[in-house]
Amino acid sequence: MKKSSLFFVLLCLFQISKLGFCLAGSVHTANNNGDKRHGFIRVTNFGAVGDGKTDDTQAFLKAWEAVCNGGSNNTTLLVPLGKIFMLKPLKFAGPCKSSSVTFLVRGNLVAPGYTWDMGNSPAWISFDRINGLVVIGGGVKGGGTLDSRGSVWWGSGHAQDRPTAMHFNNCNGLRIYNLQHLNSPRNHISLSGSKNISVSGLKLTAPGDSPNTDGIDISNCIGVDIRDSVISTGDDCIAINTGSSYINITGLFCGPGHGISVGSLGKAGAFATVEEVRVKNCTLTNTTNGVRIKTYQNGLGYARKISFEDIKMVDSQNPIIIEQNYINRGKIEEVGFEYSNYQNRGSKNRFYKTESGNGRGVKVSDVRYSRIYGTSASDDAVTFNCNADLGCDNIVMDHVNIVSAKAGQVVSASCNNVHGSYLNSPVSCIKK
Predict the structure, then answer these.
(1) Hey, which of 168, 191, 259, 362 would disulfide with 287, CB 3.0 to 4.6 Å?
(2) In the CATH hierarchy, which fold is given to the domain comprising 31-154+161-186?
């Protein structure tokens, strides 16, 4: 080949290489410009690797600091699609400069595959004092999933010290959408000390025998709206605890698990209050309990103005329960109904004799059950076990029709110290 031809070929190769470099640079610049235009801050820009093994905790905290302190220009922390980020326990703290910040999870997050000291880390991922926080899952198949690897915690040796997976505290105006969450060590999501919360499109999953793996626990919150979600765990799908009011739950598919619970309230003699709760258009399948209110017998306070409407039961063990004399028998925090002071022996309901005359108890009143239907896996479709001194007042059953899941069997209802009324409810023990 002549020298002139060789020079021409080399010149062409150089130009092609230069073009490729420029194109790559242009794509990188375009991505950065796109991030800036949309207010994104990528965790990978702060050193996050996303191989599922490397500890990316510090990179996430640095990215969060940039988002939280970025004012109105950069308000979204982006977890990019196609990567798995391993995170040790961490806290995203506010207050932030912007009135709203977003945690956008398109990739996947996993917890360490080992237990840790609970002293300084009661939750795997916590958000504290962040108003206007928006947490959004990926919304695409295979992305936006959190795996808490709770199985390493579920052994008996860790019964008392297991972390919540995600804890939101003092986060007014919180929004959580389209999040998938697997295998929490304990409850999947805790909401506390906050107002005006909206939750929808969640899928929370853990084995039915995993201990205390509640879906969502609510405490000291005002104005919580939970919609169109699927919760399949080893304990309560949703537990509404003290200090909570104006709670709306709509379109929930629950099961397996322990159903939807108000309480437990009044533990260790505490003053507890829950009011203005509405549960509507929900389906509970193969749950240990259905819709339940449970209060400790020596507590104080009230649970009132609660309604359960348009609820479908599919083989629930105890579809409708008020247990006003609840006792925790050797279990940690949340326990199944079988550990209360009510027990089913054979086909008849029996109640333990409870302490009376002590002037204590959590008052239960103004509870309405409307259009509750489906099947019960046990003989006990309705159980109202109320305190001899306080009783349960203004309990209304309106079109409650639950039948046995077993062919040829019938279901029954049991009432103890309950006052109210019923309308078109074949299974009821309330006296008009």
Answers:
(1) 259
(2) Pectate Lyase C-like (2.160.20)
**Contacts made by residues 65-69, CB under 8 angstroms, sequence distance 24+:** 66/41, 67/41, 67/96, 67/101, 68/92, 68/93, 68/94, 68/96, 68/97, 68/98, 68/101, 68/130, 69/96, 69/97
Q: Which of 167, 181, 188, 258 is catalytic?
A: 258
Q: What beta strand segments (E) does 130-270 contain?
A: 133-136, 145-147, 164-169, 175-177, 180-182, 189-192, 195-200, 203-205, 216-219, 222-232, 238-240, 244-254, 260-265
DSSP helix/strand/coil, 158: helix
pLDDT value at residue 38: 58
Residues contacting residue 378 through CB under 8 Å, at least 6 positions apart: 317, 318, 344, 411
Q: 212-353+364-432: same fold as 31-154+161-186?
A: yes
Task: Give the three-class secondary structure for 268.
Answer: helix
CB atoms within 10 A of CB 431: 10
pTM of this prediction exceeds 0.90: no
Per-residue model confidence (pLDDT) at position 157: 67
| Per-residue pLDDT tens over the stretch 183-203 | 999 999 999 999 999 999 999
Question: Top-level CATH class of 212-353+364-432?
Answer: mainly beta
258 noted as active-site residue? yes
The residue count for the chain: 432
